[in-house]
């Protein structure tokens, strides 16, 4: 017995059997007579014994767990993706560890180390920056890794994302078609691949029109509501002749922060500033001014990523790495409208 936690040795002593018999009752009850099984189960109840599943799984060299390392647990986008992961994993009898890197590189690295020690079957991750060496090591050290919401640069690992360049194009084209000529791109840091791709799509859309338009990049330190508020304060502080009439935000949280500042300043959305977000989380539609947003199939992203990870972790020879890319969809709501100068 370690400290006062009863172990298998204590159960064996109380039931008057060997430790192997206790193990059989727990793992292969069909090998044990009913009388012995009942004696052992009575000892388990009497002692309040709980099996150490982690130790058992470590001894077995594998675990029935996978992990999802998200970039920001406060962002509903990741909760929706995680719901899809959990549905798929649960169907296979697996448990999902959810870890929040909080956009902190050292915290992300620490989680990856702990998860390898825990012998999880594999890791889903939305990395905070381009897939670095710490991830490249993972597959080589028996740890399948699938990128989520982020496109793998090559075929060395699986990834599941939407086409963020197309998503940026859809958002920007919508604002251009509604007459805007000076449009802010609100998002950052630009080291996040999704932000870079959305900005690139917006830039490409401006090149496709035959009239002068201006894309004003307003980089943020994170993809949060607070950073959206800061960007909103910078926007409203611009002189009228330089102020954009529309903003495309790299995700809905930034857009909601922007909406909040516009409302506080008594400015109208979309009259004074049209706003487009990205993800189409539940709060986009529920916002005071329902938000136009680029929808990501969040639960489908999660289910697909989990299926690929479990397939790779199972060691099926037929597994081939896949870089799945879904098509985003523009959902138009009240925060944008026909803008006639
Ligand atoms: O994963 C980076 C960002 O892309 C997240 O903030 C999420 O909103 C997705 O849009």
TrEMBL record:
Domain HTH lacI-type: 6-60
Nucleotide-binding recorded as keyword: no
Top-level taxon of the source organism: Bacteria
InterPro entries the record matches: HTH_LacI, LacI/GalR-like_sensor, Lambda_DNA-bd_dom_sf, Peripla_BP_I
GO MF annotation terms: DNA-binding transcription factor activity; transcription cis-regulatory region binding
Gene3D superfamilies for the chain: 3.40.50.2300, lambda repressor-like DNA-binding domains
Protein name according to UniProt: LacI family transcriptional regulator
Organism of this sequence: Actinophytocola algeriensis
